[in-house]
Specification:
Layout lengths: L5 E5 L3 H13 L3 E5 L2 H10 L4 E5 L7 H9 L6 E6 L3 H9 L4 E5 L3 H23 L4 E4 L2 E4 L4 E4 L5 E2 L3 H12 L7 H9 L9 H12 L10 E4 L3 E4 L3 E4 L1
Parallel strand pairs: 1-2, 1-3, 3-4, 4-5
Antiparallel strand pairs: 6-7, 6-12, 7-8, 8-9, 10-11
Organism: Enterovibrio qingdaonensis
Keywords: DNA-binding, Phosphoprotein, Transcription, Transcription regulation, Two-component regulatory system
Pfam family, one: Trans_reg_C
Length: 240
Amino acid sequence: MLNQKRILVVDDDLEIRELLQEYLSKAGYDVTTAQNGLEMKAKLAVQYPDLILLDIMLPGDDGFTLCKYVRQDSSVPIIMLTAVSDETDQIIGLELGADDYIAKPFSPRQLVARIRALLRRTQQLQETTMSKPKAIRFAQWRLDPVTQRLNHQVTGQEVEMTSADFALLMLFLENPQTLLDRNAISNAIRGRDAQPQERGIDVQLSRLRQRLKDNGKQSTIIKTVRGNGYMFVAEITYES
């Protein structure tokens, strides 16, 4: 299939690798696997997939280290496989640039739904940015929607952005002066509602605010509307 999406599964458990390869292949994906970081890097050197499923607990380089490695030069979507009760792992993964996470043990059907939602969101974002203006300016920042480069207009500093950072920023730029609750944000950047007690959205918002140097109590770019959500309040101009 010409448009078959490629998925790389990185997990040291042979049974899980075989299960996911079989299930995801039946779901229509081209699946390859790696049992550790060395195998993963060797496969990435040949070709990057459309999405990576990355277990945290790996021999040698763990999932956090490998997530940082990928994010050095790629925005490929990453779903972290985490321990069911370890919220800390989930938060660290998101801070390092993962797009989503799913806790073990998980339903293969739920995993496929997460993969489809994330790939659909990624495709929509790519299609949207192709029709965007040359640059978007707000506060003291300039964003190039095609290259995903964010620069400070005074210092010239370029801020590194993950695919999740970019998706979240674009969501706010496309909906200025609009109240966005956690479900709206999660659906836009992950393709699903936020889970009860889930802190992932808060982590990603905090990280974006830090990138924009807007993390003080008197935010001038993204304001918190307590109990309701968030609103982008900075003035926006466009370069054609």
